[in-house]
Amino acid sequence: MHEVRSDEPKYAFLWDKETKQKNRYGEDIELATEGSELHGHSLNINGDEDIGDNPNRYKQHGFYFNADNCIGCHACESACSEKNDNPAHIAFRSVGYVEGGTYPDYQRLNISMACNHCDDPVCLTGCPTRAYTKFAEYGAVLQDPDICFGCGYCTWVCPYNAPQLDPIKGQVTKCNMCVDRLEVGLKPSCVAACLGNALDFGVVENIPEGHDQAITDIPGFPTPDITHPNIRFQQKRQSHREMTRTDSMPLKYHKDDAEGIYKPVVDEKAGKEKHWNFKKLLTSHESAHVIFTLATQATVGAFSLFMLGSIIDVPGMQLMQAYPVMMTFLVVLTAVCSVGLFKLNMHLGKPHRFYRGFNNLKLSPVSREIAGVSLFYGGLLGYVVLIALAMPLTDFIAGISGMVAVLSGVVGLYYMYRLYRIPARPFWDHGQTGTAFFGTMLSLGSLLTLLVAAVMLPLQGSEALVSALAMMMSLGLLIEGVGHVLHARDMKAADNEGGASYYRQTTQYGKSFWLRNGLLLLSYVLATTIVFTGLQGVAGYVMLAMLAVAMITAAVFSRSLFFVLVIPTTMPGAFFWKNEGFVEHARETGLADAPQHGVVYEQHHAFKVDEIVDTIKENSLQDIVEHAKGILGR
User: Fold this and answer.
1) Eight-state DSSP code of residue 199
2) How far apart (Å, rounded) are the C-alpha atoms in residues 206 and 61?
């Protein structure tokens, strides 16, 4: 329990007496009645089994923010980080701002934000490891970093940028509502530290003394419809009709007179010039996801086509059943899938804890994707081994193993699609995600099959197989292309973060975007040509090589754009802190090497071994220990 100081100021104590029964969303504020299963348990704070005597212990609490009073002093940030012993690059609470008008009628609106301990916490339902729990005590959504394996999915789905992924420790941490203070009747540290009386805390829907507003929208705050956050605002000072962000996000907020709220719109602050940005595109933090999704979709498509070829009567597919061809094909599929799974696993903050990804099959699409893809991989391996044994009984079992792989692969790809339909990321929350994934499964799966066939089989005599696979490629590319066209149309017209992503797509990555489009069109033309002409002699191999290069390059560019362009419905940052532009600048110029700037390179323990080895060669034992502690963030 937190120890209450003898000189604790009056404003640091909770003040709630009477409370309401329902919140504005119709949810019960009382989360556990006396005598219920959830009532009377200890939170075991620091191993203390005592139960706090707060009379409102089982009621939903929340923050109250008076935007008119916040002076941007960042005392709340400092108090939070000090209490939780956070390093400089992690902040559970942060102060960003938007601004409007011009001199002399300039306005700056500060927004102090931490976890909102939502009624519908998407971090909890999304987390594959079940690291999150929503407690009846205070309605706190708490996260256990020891369970977390560092996938970062909760940071994707949260609209408020509350979960913080530490790239050094390889785990997520977040605001814990200071439940240790609540248990003894004290407000959270950030509230107690606020100089301007801008932050307050209590049972949700209760309005603090001296205030008379409890609204759910202010400029820069994402829509509350996604999670029903437990935060209420007061803002009586009229804002300008248009409020802009000072960070690099191409967004501003425009007042909708009909609804009386501010909505995000595109801010073309970076101009209209088109760029390549190859380095940012192809070496992003999500490059592992690019490789994993493409490799998995290609192998599921190819193996499904192989297994179902006779059932769906694919012309010429019986040629792939010849033992040398089949074994080469299966080995290639296994290798490609293995690379994808390896890259995904090593992308985790704690790769050795990969098995925890199965913990939340009930709720998390990530867990279901992991289960489906893992079962596919197991079925594929089983099929390869059993076919290699070449025995009558094992052939029958191999068939069962292969069909299990096909079915589980389809399930895995479906949940791969579902996990990206995130309301907090409008650029992804579109049917194009499905057309891209399904189209890639068909096109790359058919290409992989055709490449093996071209190496292992003579072109003369394989005309039917070549034409059938080329037709599958054309269909996959057509589906993907139509999806891109519809997606571009919808995002161009969207007045939200999806529209801002489209703006970046046509400017910051404009040349790469059009290169992708050109390669997709070229791939479709080549594949369609092969449908009618087949592949003949040296010219056929040259055409196949051109098709393979064009398709693979287009797929890599397309998937890289998918990840690098997405803009979440996140809170506005400050000029430096939580500003993507400053983070990039700090890494490019070396400022990230100075820890006081709060910027670190994205890395995990596994990638720092070389530095430790170099230190061992050059320094004493004490120096080695100190250097290793610094590298590992301990």
Assistant:
1) E
2) 9
Cα separation, 363 vs 349, whole angstroms: 22
- Buried residues in 354-370 as b, exposed as e (16+ CB within 10 A): bebbebbeeebbbbbbb
- Contact indicator for 56, 182 with CB cutoff of 8 Å: no
Other C-beta atoms lying within 10 Å of the C-beta of residue 154: 28
Sheet holding 242-245, edge to edge: 107-113, 94-100, 242-245, 251-256, 261-266
C-alpha Rg value of the chain to the nearest Å: 28
Is 90 exceeded by the pLDDT of residue 562?
yes
| Distance (Å, whole) CA 109 – CA 200 | 18
Print burial letters for 546-572: b (CB count within 10 Å at least 16), e (below 16).
ebbebbbbbbbbbbbbbbbbbbbbbbb
Q: What is the pLDDT of residues 416-440, one digit of tens each?
A: 999 999 999 999 999 999 999 999 9
Calculate the alpha carbon distances from 413 to 51, 256, 299, 428 in Å. 46, 39, 11, 16
Q: Kind of pairing, strands 61-66 and 231-234? A: parallel
**Bond preceding residue 9 cis, omega within 30 of 0:** no
pLDDT tens digit sequence for 286-338? 999 999 999 999 999 999 999 998 788 888 999 999 999 999 999 999 999 99
| Residue 66 exposed, middle or buried by CB count within 10 Å (0-12, 13-18, 19+) | buried
Cβ atoms of 142 and 135 closer than 8 Å: yes
Instruction: Mark 511-536 as b/e (b = at least 16 C-beta within 10 Å).
Output: bbbebbbebbebbbebbbebbeebbe
- How far is 631 from 491, CA to CA, in rounded Å? 42
Secondary structure tally for the chain: helices H, strands E: 18, 12
Query: In three state form, how does the secondary structure of 207-244 look?
Result: CCCCCCCCECCCCCCCCCCCCCCCEEEECCCCCCCEEE
Structure tokens at 496: 């939200």
3-state SS assignment for residue 61? strand
Residue 136 corresponds to which amino acid?
A: A
Interatomic CA distance for residues 299 and 307, integer angstroms: 12
Beta pairing partners, 252: 244, 265
Kindly give, in sequence order, each residue whose CB lies less than 8 Å from that of residue 83, ignoring residues fewer than 6 positions away.
Answer: 178, 189
